[in-house]
Amino acid sequence: MLLTFVAFATMLLLNPARTHDAKVQQYPRLLAAAQKDRVLIVAPHIDDEAIGAGGYAIDALANGADVYVVFLTAGDCNRFSARLMYKTLGPTASNYLGVGNARISEARAAMHLLGIPRDHYFVLGYPDRGLRTMVDNPGAIVRSKATRESSVPYADAVTPRAEYSYASLMSDIEKVIKQVQPTTVIAPVPFDLHPDHSAAAEITDVALDELQLHPKRLGYLVHTTRSRIHTAFVKMPTRALLPPARMQAFSWATYGLTTAVQKTKTDLLMTYKSQRPYVFLLRNAFVRKNELFFVYPQ
Predict the structure, then answer these.
(1) Is the separation of the CB atoms in 185 and 208 below 8 Å?
(2) Is CATH 3.40.50.10320 the classification given to domain 34-295?
(3) CA-to-CA distance for 47 and 268, rounded, in angstroms?
(4) Exposed, middle or buried, 230 (CB in 10 Å: 0-12/13-18/19+)?
(5) Which end of the chain lies in a sparser environment, N or C, as judged by fewer CB atoms within 10 Å?
(6) What are phi and psi of 293, to 5 degrees?
(7) Taken in order 96, 97, 98, 103, is the CA torsion positive or negative?
(8) Using CA atoms, how far apart are residues 58 and 72, in angstroms rounded to an integer?
(9) Tens of pLDDT along 175-186?
């Protein structure tokens, strides 16, 4: 019995990739988007589109599908980025606005790298780390804890100076969805532990319900621990991306990434220079042999 256990443990240690391969095969595989498809990726923050569905988007564009991205916030509440960019331990509201503008510029570069035209991506500019507050308090006007703004401060946004309210947010996301008329919508899962991500899932589904649209729905999972940081200190492009053990029975599907697509996804993530060195951990965690999607029932 002891020898059997030792042999099994040795197999796991020496063949982690094979073990992951066996686990990933229990989930169905997603087909690439076709030329007739219109794919909308919902990103709570600028870079989430690359983390969760960058590989899927790369192949969809190569197949001639239309790919659209909507960024709900500008990611302007990142204290670490503000400290690095402005070399200060106490970033000001102006510094955080600078982070937001930098991330919008990076998003523009990332979309250009992908080949997504300007009229196919949208920055809404609502408060980073404020989406959950907006959803839970639909009658309130929210003030950003970082920028101190109470309305959209970015000129490139869909509705500059729209108040930070649930009604304004829903108006903007519905405007985008009506324009896109997506056949597939990819957004965070409602059980992501980052409050902006779980709120983004609710916002997306409420908007689709109000518009009475029923596209194929896929969800991506980024934050699986209370620390909200998915860490991986070593590049593992040959290993599969799998759900946490407590979620393995959920309705998942995998989408395989070729080596070429992995490289492009890496280049896409590296576009977000304001997120270094965190972006290297994201690359290690999410540039794998597959992307993982939660499949909503039709």
Answers:
(1) yes
(2) yes
(3) 9
(4) middle
(5) N
(6) -130, 140
(7) positive
(8) 21
(9) 999 999 999 999
